[in-house]
């Protein structure tokens, strides 16, 4: 029996389609098996679509290499107990963020993010020293006053080469902080490099409570001077500052003091807005405190928007190599507007602005969003601010200066009582 030609054509067509679909299905299954090996691992991977700006160009990035590497590590690494998917995940993000090669742009795990917020809140457990990066080396910006680090003999400018015998080469700031911090009462040994050579310094960790503002009064040639130490620009700084500024203003108006020495030595910075708030205590309304430049949004100029209480008090500002970021904004603005004389040593030189972002699950991201310029347009990044009166403190490495031995403070007191 002969089938009609059209019927034969239909059968052949359906057969061809069937063979094509079967082959395609097989190849598709084969591709899925090959490229979805991550689904065969011992955990579940969730993906979320990002929310990029509409004008952002999509980049074609093949993540096959990433998953291939992930799978090979999990399958072949000799010590199975060290395979921690969560740590691998966080490590991947850290590496991605670190690729921009900016020491102030970094990812924080939930634990690290909590520690970072505790720092600015003025309470944490550790040794009480502010760290920085210079020439890819971990450096002590400054030990906090009366901290375990200061009491043990740690000095501004010390290079940390080892923590508990482990080299800090290629460590990030966060790695170093996490190694140094620990429970109250435990010991950590820092190996520091100085001009005199390397030295091991054992330190017992304690709970560190850091007041931002400490106000005392010093005598010089029969005159009383307000001496205000500003240790950071943190969560409680503005409220602490207002209380101290009110007290100083009252004494100045009653002619009980001859002037003010503002000490930001060893102050590593903090919130930019706080530096603007404090500078506004001394500058007239409308004056520029700092300029912020960025490629992602409009530039911004921060100006004085309130009437300060200390507009005419004689003022000397103390700075040193531990004065960084917001400290440099404050001291630089007061210098540029000829409101204060700077005394001490050249500052640290950090001229960038970071934004602290909270991510999901408690993680965080600190990202450099801009650079800042002093009112005169100077960008001090990497070079710092030179004081108008250079004074160096010479101190035995194992001793802490008293106010009487502090040549920088004594020079500041001498200058402030002669200013009008």
TrEMBL record:
Is the keyword NAD assigned to this protein? no
Task: Please give one Pfam family short name.
Answer: PDZ_6
Q: Does the record bear Protease in its keywords?
A: yes
Gene Ontology annotations for the cellular component aspect, listed alphabetically: outer membrane-bounded periplasmic space
Top-level taxon in the UniProt lineage: Bacteria
The PDZ domain sits at 125-196
GO BP annotations listed = proteolysis; signal transduction
| Gene3D superfamilies named among the record's database cross-references | 2-enoyl-CoA Hydratase, Chain A, domain 1, 2.30.42.10, 3.30.750.44
User: Per its record, what are the GO molecular function terms?
Assistant: endopeptidase activity; serine-type peptidase activity
Q: Which residues form the Tail specific protease domain?
A: 196-392
| InterPro entries linked | ClpP/crotonase-like_dom_sf, PDZ, PDZ_6, PDZ_sf, Peptidase_S41A, Tail-specific_protease
Family membership: Belongs to the peptidase S41A family.
Q: What is this protein called?
A: S41 family peptidase
């Amino acid at each position: 029996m002969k089938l009609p030609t059209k019927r034969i054509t239909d059968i052949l067509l359906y057969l061809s389609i069937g063979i094509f679909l079967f082959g395609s299905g097989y190849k598709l299954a084969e591709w899925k098996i090959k490229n979805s090996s991550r689904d065969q691992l011992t955990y579940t991977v969730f993906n979320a679509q990002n929310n990029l700006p509409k004008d952002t160009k999509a980049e074609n990035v093949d993540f096959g290499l990433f998953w291939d590497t992930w799978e090979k590590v999990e399958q072949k690494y000799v010590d199975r107990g060290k395979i921690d998917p969560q740590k691998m995940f966080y490590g991947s993000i850290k590496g991605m963020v670190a690729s921009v090669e900016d020491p102030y742009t970094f990812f924080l795990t939930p634990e690290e993010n909590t520690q970072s917020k505790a720092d600015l809140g003025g309470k944490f457990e550790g040794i009480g020293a502010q760290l920085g990066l210079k020439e890819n080396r971990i450096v002590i910006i400054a030990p906090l006053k009366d901290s375990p680090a200061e009491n043990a003999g740690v000095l501004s400018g010390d290079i940390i080469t080892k923590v508990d015998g482990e080299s800090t080469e290629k460590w990030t700031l966060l790695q170093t902080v996490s190694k140094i911090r620990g429970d109250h009462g435990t010991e950590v040994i820092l190996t520091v490099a100085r001009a005199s050579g390397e030295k091991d310094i054992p330190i017992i960790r304690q709970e560190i409570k850091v007041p931002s503002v400490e106000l005392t009064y010093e005598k010089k040639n029969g005159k009383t001077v307000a001496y205000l130490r500003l240790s950071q620009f943190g969560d409680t700084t503005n409220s602490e500052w207002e209380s101290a500024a009110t007290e100083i203003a009252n004494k100045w108006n009653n002619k009980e003091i001859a002037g003010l020495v503002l000490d930001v030595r060893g102050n590593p910075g903090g919130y930019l807005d706080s530096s603007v708030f404090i500078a506004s205590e001394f500058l007239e309304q409308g004056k520029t405190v700092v300029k912020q430049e960025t490629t992602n949004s409009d530039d911004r100029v921060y100006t004085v928007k309130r009437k300060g209480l200390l507009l005419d008090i004689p003022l000397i500002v103390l700075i040193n190599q531990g004065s960084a970021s917001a400290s440099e904004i404050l001291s630089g603005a007061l210098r540029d507007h000829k409101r204060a004389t700077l005394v001490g040593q050249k500052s640290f030189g950090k001229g960038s602005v970071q934004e602290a972002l909270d991510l999901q699950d408690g993680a965080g991201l600190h990202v450099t969003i801009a650079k800042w310029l002093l009112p005169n347009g100077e960008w001090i990044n990497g070079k710092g601010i030179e004081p108008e009166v250079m004074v160096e403190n010479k101190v035995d490495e194992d001793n802490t200066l008293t106010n009487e031995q502090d040549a920088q403070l004594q020079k500041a007191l001498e200058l402030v009582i002669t200013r009008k």
